[in-house]
Amino acid sequence: DNLTADHKKPHHARFAGDRYLASFPVTIALERGRSFSAICMDISQTGMRVMILGEENMPLLDIGDKCILRFDLLPGVLQEGMEKRYRIKATVVRLMQEQNCLAVKFEIPLYANRRKRKDGLLISIASLFLFVVTLVILLMRTESIVRFNQNSLLYAYSIVTAGFLLTRYLFGALYHPIPVDPNYTPSITIVIPCFNEEKWIGRTLLSCINQDYPVDKLEIIMVDDGSTDRSVEVIKDTVKRLWNENEYYQTRKRIRVFFQKQNQGKREAMALGVRNTRTELVAFVDSDSFLEPDAIRNLVQPMYDPKTAGVTGRTDVVNAYTNHYTKMQCVRYYISFRILKAAEAYFNSVMCLSGPLSCYRLDAVKEVLDEWLHQTFLGRKATFGDDRSLTNYIVRKYRTYYQDTAICSTLVPNRGKVFLRQQMRWKRSWLRESLKAGSFMWRKEPLMSISFYLGLLIPLAAPIIMVYNLIYVPLVLHIFPTTFLLGILMMSLLMSFTQLVFKRSNLWIYGVWFCIYYEAVLLWQMPYAWVTFWVSEWGTRGTEKKKIRKDRVKPGIPVTEASQR
Is it the case that residue 233 has pLDDT exceeding 50? Predict the structure, then answer.
């Protein structure tokens, strides 16, 4: 990427030369007026390799020739937001006669071409609609104030909810990540707890070791928590392959693996990693999450403040284009991190340092390790909500932050049943930990405290408000709830247009779909969570007893000794 001074380029453009396998038709037009067809073999932000259809066309081209490429970049080929129809100038830089292939370099990177051709008008229109939606919401709340005496409780809820959400969006928009100081590279260990992730654990490990970070400052601890699939074999094979690479990377010293005889839960696996950490910081990465090459370098930057003891990065959805479930989660994830967590970071009190990518000061974690590990609720051991629970122990004494430039991608459920189980588990842990945090959040910054308590009360009251507006008002008062439904639509458009303005993704419309799905389905999980929030089953993993593998080694045995045994 030769536009190093372009500060407007998206985050993924920092690795503009990364190539992705592809297969889609390309039309190549020469300046002499001749055009012919090709197939893209791989593509990056800065160029592509194509295979010419018809050997007779190769002699027409030579290195340095100028051409124009026309192609449709489909969703999922490159990063989210890059999909569109392109017409871009390029130069031939390499010929591969035997394969009938050639490589071209784009005149300008794809992200710059997209911004030049489309983003200006698109973002202007989106910003205008975002302004209109916000204005409509404010006007509707003005109406609530005027009619306040008619139904004080209902209109008070309406005013408070709108004020809460709009201020979250405001503070999220004001947020800025901590810039990278190239001289600040504290030592850090990445702990990866793993259970039955044979398909993805190798990719996770590779993304963690392939970091733009000093070799002597980054270590990795892999903890297999009694997997019953082929995760152990995949871990061993991946680690052996890394150990056999260049001695410069010190992989034999930097990568350690521990196996637990049987499944004890994610919390136990994380604690085992903490006890074996020998660096200043400890990071946690889920076994189905994949880090960007500069994720750790960006993640540690807020730790320069000695009062900060926890940081979380941004989590994107790696399987965004699978179906409607994953597309709506893609929008929801982005708003949850870039707006909601960013708003909390504005007050140095992020309430959940997420499992896919989070970082803590080791000393701070060790202070609360035993209490967190043996946490109980209503006499039962807490077995999920590990990340939110650990955050609670840290945030009551220290600052916590959100770093938007520390990015990882994670897999999300693509089936309704699994998605609903996940959401129920999250609601139960949210309720349990929010009640716990309520005992100390009043000591925090006043605006943050008010925001926290409102964020607790509004979801709890939402089902009651829904029943009143959608059942009682139409059936008893014989009034169609036009204003209420319009309010839901405006809130969903607020989410969608915000995603479009900030991320510039074609998936923005799924923000509306998520809000509809939430009001119709997910919202009604909340009352059930009220009366079952002590339930400790994992939900998406199953609760049946797993068969213990015969070749399981003892906990704490490094992979070298395990292999020898």
Answer: yes
Q: Please answer whether residues 286 and 410 qualify as being in contact, where contact means their C-beta atoms are separated by less than 8 angstroms.
A: yes
Number of C-beta neighbours around residue 108 at 10 A: 18
Q: What is the pLDDT of residue 256?
A: 95
Cβ atoms within 10 Å of 161's Cβ, excluding its own: 21
Torsions phi, psi for 399 (to 5 deg): -85, 150
Task: State which amino acid sits at residue 441.
Answer: M
User: Closest Cα partner for 335 from 458, 173, 191?
Assistant: 173
pLDDT of residue 560 exceeding 60: no
Q: Is the pTM of this model over 0.70?
A: yes
Nearest in space to 94 (alpha carbons), one of 72, 132, 119, 61: 61
Q: How many degrees, rounded to 5, is the angle at CA 26 between CA 21 and CA 32?
A: 135
Those residues whose C-beta lies under 8 Å from the C-beta of residue 435, and which sit 6 or more positions away, are 456
pLDDT tens digits for range 5-64: 555 666 666 777 888 999 999 999 987 678 888 999 999 999 999 998 876 666 677 889
| Exposed e or buried b per residue across 38-59, where buried means at least 16 C-beta atoms within 10 angstroms of its C-beta | bebbebbbbbbbbebeeeebbe
Neighbouring-strand partners of residue 87: 70
Structure tokens at 191: 């702990």
pLDDT at 169 exceeding the cut of 50: yes
d(CA 78, CA 17): 12
CB 520 within 8 A of CB 135: no
Cα 450 → chain centroid = 27
Mean pLDDT for 150-170 is 88
Taking residues 251-268, what's their average pLDDT?
91
Under the banding of pLDDT at 50, 70 and 90, the label for residue 284 is: very high
Identify the CA nearest to 543 among candidates 387, 386, 384, 371: 384
Q: Is the pLDDT of residue 492 over 50?
A: yes
> CA-based angle 334:270:235, to the nearest 5?
90
d(CA 199, CA 216): 29
Longest dimension (CA), the chain: 82
Report d(CA 409, CA 316) in Å as an integer: 5
Q: How far apart are CA 551 and CA 395, in angstroms?
A: 41
Pairing of strands 218-225, 255-260: parallel
- Residues 379 and 360: their CA atoms lie apart, in Å, by 28
